Amino acid sequence: MNKRLLALLSVLVVASMVLAACGAPAATEAPAATEAPAMTEAPAATEAPASGPAAGSMGTIKIATQSPLSGGQSLLGVAIKQGAELALEQLGGDLAAMGYDVQLAPYDDQATPDVGVANAKNIVADSAILCGVGHLNSGVMIPSSEEYHTAGLAFVSPANTNPVVTTRGYLEVNRIVGRDDVQAPAAEEYAFKTLGAKSVFIIHDKTAYGQGVAEFFRTAAEEDGITVVDFVGTEETANFDAIIAPLVAAAPDVVFFAGIYNQAGVFFKQAREAGFEGTFLGTDGMDSSDLADLAGTALTTGGGMAYTTVAGPASAYPSAAQFVEDYTAKFGAAPEAYASQGYDAMGVCLAAIKAAAEAAGGTPTRNQVALAIRALSYEGLTSTIAFDEIGDLPLAKYFIIKVNATSKDTWGTNEIIDSFDLPSPGK
Known about the structure:
The chain has 427 residues and is of the alpha/beta class. The chain has 2 domains: 24-178 and 317-393, Response regulator (Rossmann fold, 3-Layer(aba) Sandwich); 180-309 and 398-423, Rossmann fold (3-Layer(aba) Sandwich), CATH 3.40.50. It has helices spanning 3-22, 74-91, 93-97, 113-125, 138-151, 164-167, 180-194, 208-223, 241-250, 261-273, 289-295, 321-331, 339-360, 366-375, and strands at residues 59-67, 100-108, 129-134, 155-157, 173-175, 199-204, 227-233, 254-258, 279-282, 305-309, 378-379, 384-385, 395-402, 415-423. Helix 7 (180-194) packs across helix 8 (208-223), helix 10 packs parallel to helix 11 and helix 13 (339-360) packs across helix 14. It is elongated.
């Protein structure tokens, strides 16, 4: 073989190596959330750090988040997204070392079912998305997950508590928190046994989450002989006079609010100003520092306020101390409720994709990822995460929190007065 031919062959070999190192082109980015502001797009910094040989040569894998990034519930929705973002940054190295470019694809569901479903259609249309983290609201998750189920795309919920989320038995739907048919009766038991309540006024926000919680609470109250003086659903957010007048006249021992903090805080303030002196109770939808800014001293005067939650503050989890430090350093504020669960949900996605990729010897299918999630035992910040046959934790943790805060800055003074592990009720 002459020298000229050898030289030509050498050039061709080098060229082919360069092309291989460049890898497949990145998949087209999913469109921004329907009607959502442009800020919902993930910054480049959220990509997993490139490491290992031929980083990115195996192509792009995306993990979606869906939660409210704008509007009145955005404090918790952004916490979910930011927890997931930090997890991708810290835990995405294994997939990067395998040659994958791993990216975050955040969507703003605006706490609205129609927007969530529209986003879900865009998410499942992006073949690079192999797993998802979300939602905050059960009323958004339930219809959106019909799209995920049809497309075979697994989601891990850091927050959804309505039983229907998992009792449909979809392989693609999992959650790392407890359920309303457990936490609402726990709230009722606190009212009955600890507070000695003999009467309760129940109000809910007409969502799948709020109405479900309210009905579970009512059933437990009636079984214990607590008088339910009224059971009211409302979408009002500003003027509750029509509800508060009969409430004050009835003077129940407890008002149980089943809904989200941005509506509840306004209601609590107006009810206290109108003369209600009893105790406010709620569930995990109350767990936001914005509640204290909205309600102020209404939370600590009269009978005060307490709530149950499926997600204790990050300080409640011994493994989360470094997470709190890292989150605060990265985002400039302490983590709100569900940030650590967002971190763990992303961790589950990453671990499952890695396991599925190793088993497949390359980029896994969505179904392989969904099956890997169900086979996983994952050591998270909040617990050891493993799912039963319908996607629930076999044993979930619940907390009862007494509110001491009267402003956003003092939310950290709230007190865990009880915590307990209870089994999933199953289907």
